[in-house]
From TrEMBL:
Keywords (A to Z) from UniProt: Aminoacyl-tRNA synthetase, ATP-binding, Cytoplasm, Ligase, Nucleotide-binding, Protein biosynthesis
Cell compartment(s), UniProt: Cytoplasm
Source organism of this protein record: Desulfocicer vacuolatum DSM 3385
Binding of L-histidine, residues: 80-82, 111, 125, 129, 256, 260-261
Assigned EC number: 6.1.1.21
Pfam families according to UniProt: HGTP_anticodon (PF03129), tRNA-synt_His (PF13393)
GO MF, one example: ATP binding
Ranges of residues in domain Aminoacyl-transfer RNA synthetases class-II family profile: 1-321
Coiled coil: none
Protein name as catalogued: Histidine--tRNA ligase
Subunit structure: Homodimer.
Family statement drawn from the similarity comment of this UniProt entry: Belongs to the class-II aminoacyl-tRNA synthetase family.
Catalytic activity: tRNA(His) + L-histidine + ATP = L-histidyl-tRNA(His) + AMP + diphosphate + H(+)
UniProt gene name: hisS
Length: 420
């Protein structure tokens, strides 16, 4: 019997609804933030990836599916989407009318690496790119979009790791310091790192060999070498994320596996798939459009590992009780608690599976509990809602809200919920 190629897999009919759900939510967020969908080819000239991703990277050195076609042209199955989108942006002179463009794309990527859970040779990415905006607010916006997507999927505990890789102005100073540091440790570095030292010393910081990791402890960081402009840029990214309540940590060891990044780089890490791995990664690449033959136009983007995201959401769903309550009452404050308790009894007696929490905790932690209990609906009752006679009934599946009056909430809720 002929089976799939190693590292390639079928996504079976039982699994596709989850893929569709995530894609729909992502498309909605992208639309809200002004992104348009773009679809790019699955194959490109090898040169495109070699030049953009960089010769001394894992992807180009050992992961690409490259082959000559019948006429001998060197072709490669795309290992990522950014290079193709940049090529398309330049090829169609999309910058001519207005350099500011925001794109997203969803589709398969190909990398020949060792398959394991969450790592495949054909895998899928949800990718976003913004052209023509140099402002740090856009860096924060992209991280916020990732945060929003994960939030809408009910994921918590994912944190953005951010770093700044500097620019052509400050990179040489950093590289010099790093080279000095590496030269003093040449005898313990792996062969790969010795080669990287020549070609692109930054890559050594990404080495997974334990001896190299140890030797690189205390290595110079890009953050200590940022020029004033890069420094201000990175400060604004951070203050904006804070103002928007997006959780992040500054991680000065984050360098990313592609050469084209400058300034802000970020990854969203999770331990949900065993060892810590990234569900998404991205960064600014202000020089790439020009390097690939276009005008000097700044850009930034990210890629989400779609397969990994599906695994995480599926895992979360499995942990939830199968038959959660029809309704979870979130009572905020004493008055609300009293009201909710009385309504709860009536609802239970009328045959509805309703629950509440008596701990008096915050809205955020009660919403978390409702989610964990897998409640289909949540009624939010606080002093403000009672005062304004506007209780909030939220459908946790469709994420839609209805306002309920205090007149006869039990009747109204029963009617609404049994209709769903
Ligand atoms: P890793 O360090 O896990 O190899 P990466 O830095 O090579 O990731 P990126 O090039 O940043 O990955 O791609 C963006 C996202 O695509 C990653 O964060 C990850 O979620 C996903 N991804 C990358 N390679 C694979 C793969 N082989 N299989 C499944 N998902 C992948
Ligand atoms: Mg990789």
């Amino acid at each position: 019997m002929i089976q799939t190629i190693r590292g390639f897999r079928d996504i079976l009919p039982e699994e596709t609804p989850m893929w569709q759900k995530i894609e729909t939510i992502a498309a909605e967020i992208f639309r809200n933030f002004g992104f348009q969908e773009i679809r790019i080819p699955i194959m490109e000239k090898t040169e495109l990836f070699a030049r953009s991703i960089g010769e001394a990277t894992d992807i180009v050195e050992k992961e690409m599916y490259t082959f000559p076609d019948r006429k001998g042209d060197k072709l490669t199955l795309r290992p990522e989407a950014t290079a193709s989108i940049v090529r398309s942006y330049i090829q169609h002179k999309m910058y001519a009318a207005d350099p500011v463009r925001k794109f997203y794309t969803v589709g398969p990527m190909f990398r020949r690496e060792r398959p394991q859970k969450g790592r495949y040779r054909q895998f899928y990415q949800i990718d976003a790119e913004v052209f023509g905006i140099a402002s740090p607010y856009i860096d924060a916006q992209l991280i916020q979009i990732l945060n929003e997507l994960f939030k809408r999927l009910g994921l918590s505990g994912l944190k953005a790791h951010i770093n700044s890789l500097g620019c052509p102005e400050c990179r040489p100073g950093f590289q010099k310091a790093l080279l000095e540091f590496l030269s003093a440790r040449k005898d313990v570095l792996c062969d790969n790192c010795l080669r990287r030292m020549e070609k692109n010393p930054l890559r050594t910081l990404d080495c997974k060999v334990p001896a190299c990791r140890k030797a690189l402890e205390g290595a110079p960081t890009t953050l200590n070498h940022l020029c004033p402009d890069c420094s201000t840029h990175f400060d604004t990214v951070q203050s904006t994320l804070k103002a928007q309540n997006v959780e992040f940590v500054v991680d000065n060891t984050l360098v990313r596996g592609l050469d084209y990044y400058s300034r802000t780089a970020f990854e969203i890490l999770t331990t949900a798939l065993g060892a810590q791995s990234a569900v998404a990664g991205g960064g600014r690449y202000d020089a790439l459009v020009q390097e690939l033959g276009g005008p000097q136009i700044p850009a930034i983007g990210f890629a989400i590992g779609f397969d990994r995201l599906v695994h995480i959401v599926e895992q979360l769903e499995q942990e939830k009780p199968k038959d959660g309550p029809d309704l979870f009452l979130v009572a905020l404050g004493d008055k609300a608690m009293e009201n909710c308790h009385l309504w709860l009894s009536q609802l239970n007696l009328s045959g509805l599976k309703a629950e509440m929490d008596y701990s008096g905790k915050s809205l955020k932690s009660l919403m978390k509990r409702a989610d964990k209990r897998n409640a289909r609906n949540v009624l939010i009752v606080g002093d403000e809602e009672i005062k304004t006679d506007a209780l909030v009934l939220r459908n946790m599946e469709t994420r839609t809200q209805t306002t309920i009056s205090m007149d006869d909430p039990v009747a109204e809720i029963t009617k609404l919920i049994s209709n769903i």
